[in-house]
C-alpha cells in the first residue's frame, strides 16, 4: 500500500509516521519527501481493512499532519513507469552508455537494430557494435561535444544524435557521466520528410516537371494562378488535373479560402444543381431550412468542376449566368445570391467537337476557355516517368517504414516504354501494389504485374481462356451490370444501347441482372 501524507515541514514528523508503522509490525518499503509540495509518501505491505482504518486514524492524529490518502504510485515509481513507457514506445532507437562506452540503458527499437537480446546487450561496449564513430575516443576527449553522425549497425544505416550526459558534483561543477545516442533509420527519416512536406502537397513543388512539356504547363499555370478568370484544364484521365487545379489555388491570393470540388459526371442533374447552387426552404416537401451550395460555401475561394463536359444543358445555362457576374438563385428560391468565386474546370473530352455536335453550349465553352492548360499524357512525357516512379517509391516505402527499394535497369526501361493508358494514376497504383508486396530490396518489372497493352487494341490478355462467344458474353454481361444502376429498367437500357426492349430484357434475364442482384 502507498500513502500520500500532506503535512507541515516539522523536524521529527517522519520518525513519528515510521513509529506508527512499526507499532503495526509493518515493513517499510519506501519513503519519499517532496518539500516543495509539503508531501511525504510511504509504501508498506497491504493490511486488512480494519487495521488500515486504525493506521490512518493514528497518522492523522500526528501533530503537523493535515491529510492522509492512498495513492497508486510513489513519485519515483511514477517517474520510472513514465520513463519506461517512453523508452518502450519511442519508435527511434535510444541507447545510454557510461564513460567507458558500455551500454547501461537501451529501448526496444535500438535492441532490434543491434539484433541482440536485452540480457546480452546491457554492459557490452557499444564501440564494437557500431561502425562510423569512435565512442571511446570521443568520451575520453577534452571537450565532449554533441555530435550528429551517420552510423552503420548490422549493415543498416542510421543518423545518430550523440549527446553527452553531464551531472553536477558536490561542488556544483558538471562532470561527464556518459552519453545518450538517438538513432534514426532511413525509413524514419523518410517518414519525417513526408510529414514535413505534407503541408506543401498542394503546391507546384509536388508536380514532377522534368520534361519540356510539363515545365511549360507548370510555367503557364503559375502565371494563370495569379488571375481571377476561369481556367480550363484538359487532359486524359489520371494525368493529375485536380492536383494541378489545387496547385493553382494554393499559389493564388485565394489560398486562405476554401477549395471545393464537384464531379459533374457523378451526380444526377437535379442533385448537381442543388449541390452547386443550394436550395431554398420550399425546395423539398418537409424542408424547413435552406442549404448553401458549393458556390456560397466557397465564397472568396475556388470551385473545381471536374468533367464539366458531362454537365447537362440546363445546368450549363445556369452556369453561364453565374460566370457573367457571380450571381445565381438557389433552387426553389426567388432571392438572388452574389459571391466571389473563381472557377476551375477539367475535361477529358473534346469540347470543341462537342460544341460542333451541339452537345456543349458554345457560349459556355468560350467563357470557360479563357485560360487553358493542356496536361500531356504520361506517354508523351517520358522524362517524367522515372522521377515520378522514384517519388512514389520513396513515399510508399516511408509509409510502410521500410527502405526504398532500388529500381533495376530493366524495370526503369520497362516503365519508360510502357504506354500508361491510365497515366500517372496507373503508375502510382502499380507501384503501390508492388512496394506493398515486395520482399527484397530491388524492384523489377515482374513485380509490377502490369497487363500487356497496345495503343490500337488496348489491354491484351496473355492468359485468355475460352471461346470468342464466351468472351463476348462476359463483356456483354459486365457492360450491362455497369449500366443497369444508371438505367434500371429494360426500356431505359434498350434506349441507351439502341436495342429493342425485348432483346435487352432477355439478356438481363439470361445474365441474372435485376434490382436484387445489382445495387442501385
TrEMBL record:
Transmembrane segments annotated in the record for this chain: none
NCBIfam families cross-referenced by the UniProt entry: HTH_TypR, PRK10820.1
Coiled coil spans: none
Domain Sigma-54 factor interaction: 207-436
InterPro entries (alphabetical): AAA+_ATPase, AAA_lid_NorR, ACT-like_dom_sf, ACT_dom, Homeodomain-like_sf, HTH_TyrR, P-loop_NTPase, PAS
Ranges of residues in domain PAS: 79-123
ACT domain mapped to chain residues: 2-73
Keyword DNA-binding: yes
Subcellular location: Cytoplasm
Record key words, sorted: Activator, Aromatic hydrocarbons catabolism, ATP-binding, Cytoplasm, DNA-binding, Nucleotide-binding, Repressor, Transcription, Transcription regulation
Entry protein name: HTH-type transcriptional regulatory protein TyrR
Lineage start: Bacteria, Pseudomonadati, Pseudomonadota, Gammaproteobacteria, Chromatiales
